[in-house]
Every structure is written in structure tokens, then in C-alpha cells.
Write a structure and sequence with these properties.
By secondary structure, the chain is of the alpha/beta class. About 35% of the residues lie in helices and about 30% in strands. Strands 6-7-8-3-9-10 form a six-stranded mixed beta sheet, with helices on both faces. Helix 3 crosses helix 4 and helix 3 packs parallel to helix 5. The longest helix has 18 residues. The N and C termini lie far apart (about 45 Å). Bound molecules: adenosine-5'-triphosphate and magnesium ion. The site of adenosine-5'-triphosphate (ATP) has 11 residues, from helix 1.
Amino acid sequence: MSGELSVEALTAGYHDTPVIKALSLPALSPGEVISLVGPNAAGKSTLLRALAGLLPATGRLRLGGQDLLAMGIAARASLVTYMPQALPQGVGLSVLETLMSALEVAALDLSEKARIARAVGVLERLGVAQLAMRRLDELSGGQRQLAALAQALVRTPRVLLLDEPTSALDLHYQLRVLDLARETAREQGMIVMIVLHDLQAAARVSDRVAVLSQGAIDAFGAPEDAITPEVLARVYHVSARVERCARGRLQVIVDDVLR
Ligand SMILES: Nc1ncnc2c1ncn2[C@@H]1O[C@H](COP(=O)(O)OP(=O)(O)OP(=O)(O)O)[C@@H](O)[C@H]1O
Ligand SMILES: [Mg+2]
């Protein structure tokens, strides 16, 4: 199907040591949200960096008919945006200025007025319009994470890769950000891949969940198929139950740590 992201036998790592080993995924469709979960050091950030072209990779990586691995950096960056796990450095620019420069990098054919409207629109939808004129280096950790998210969202790429985008956020903004990621995926036909440690949040936001363990996919599918007591025991070494709450949402209840 046009616009699908296909990942086949992707291998990537550091200094000739592969972290992601010949990893393949079923085709990912435009408008779809995929959560990437798994233990520390499983290779989640490495996979996202490899998908974004920030690490050399071998294998096959195609978006629609286009070969991403053969593409130049600028062309690829206009299709795929990566929001890193680390909070952005506090530069002396206002939040709005950082969004304007993100739009410039994305080389979208928009007038300045249209760029400002788009930047302010994203801040409003994230619930942080009041931060527009604040300097990044004067923000709290959570506010800086929201500003980084706004920088990623404003570019409206075809593939959006978010590495633990809610790690610094309070409960309200965690849910707000995840809901907005889902809405944006649907509205723009964007493929959104989100690294999360919170499995309940992953089940809530995503159409499908990929469980990564030691650089390989351990489980992939609808949340209820990928997040199971067996997978949790095997991958996280915990004894857990997966139940549905009164509203039907998946709940993970951990009983014991398996040693
Ligand atoms: N810049 C680097 N140079 C060398 N090795 C690295 C580098 N970054 C990560 N690694 C190694 O690659 C492996 C996977 O790391 P990665 O950051 O992808 O894990 P992760 O799944 O994102 O973990 P976390 O949940 O802790 O963020 C780890 O063994 C890590 O030590
Ligand atoms: Mg990581």
C-alpha cells in the first residue's frame, strides 16, 4: 500500500557492534500509532536512530516506493522526524523561535504568517500556548519536553519517531501528549512510533505494540496480543496479570519480580 513503512532485516549499532540484529516488522500503515516497549538497553533508541538515518544501517527500509537507506540526509529528514530521549538543551531562544527554525529546516513551502499560525496552533493543541515567548533555558524539565514535542509535531513528517516523549511529564500532560500523537497520526496519515516504558499508556495510545528484547522483536501485534503475562515474564522478569478495567482499557498489575 502507498505510504507504508517497511522494515526488513535492519541491522544497526555502534563501532561495528550490532545492537539491532536483522530486525523485520510487518508493514506499518499511514495513520497508525506503534508503541515500542522493552527493557533498558534493549535497543529502542538505537532502532529509532537507525530509522531516522542518524546511525548507519543495513537491510531494507522503504517508505511507500522510496528507499530511505539510499536517500540523502535532507530528503530523509523531511520525511522522518526523530525526537530524542534526552531533554533539549536550554538555548536562549524563545519556544516560538525554535518552532520557526524547525519549520525552516523542514523546508515547507509556507509564508512566515502561515508558519507562525502553524507553530501557535501546535502549542495550543499541546496546551502550552503560554510558553510561546518564554526562553527555552528558563523552562522546567517538563516544559522543555513539551517544547521539544512541539518542534517535532510542527514539521508534520510522514514518519514521527518519539523516544520516551512523556518521561518528564505530569499525569495530565502524559495523556494529553499521547492523545495528540494519536489524533495527529489519524489527521495527517502520519506513522507514529513511540518508545514508552509505561505499558498501560502504550496499550492506550497504540494500534499495535512492538516488544523489543536484546535487539530483536519478541512480540508484535494488537496491545492485548503483545502485552501478555507470558511476554512480561520472559522480557521483564516479572509475574504480572493483564486485565481490563470497567471501561475496557488494558491494565497491567505486577505481582512479583522474578529473580
Ligand atoms: N552511543 C553509543 N555508543 C556505543 N554503544 C551505545 C551507544 N548508545 C547506546 N549504546 C548501547 O546500545 C545498547 C542499546 O542502547 P539503547 O539506547 O538503544 O537502549 P534503549 O532500549 O533505548 O534503553 P533505555 O530504555 O535505557 O533508553 C546498549 O547496550 C547501549 O549500551
Ligand atoms: Mg532509550
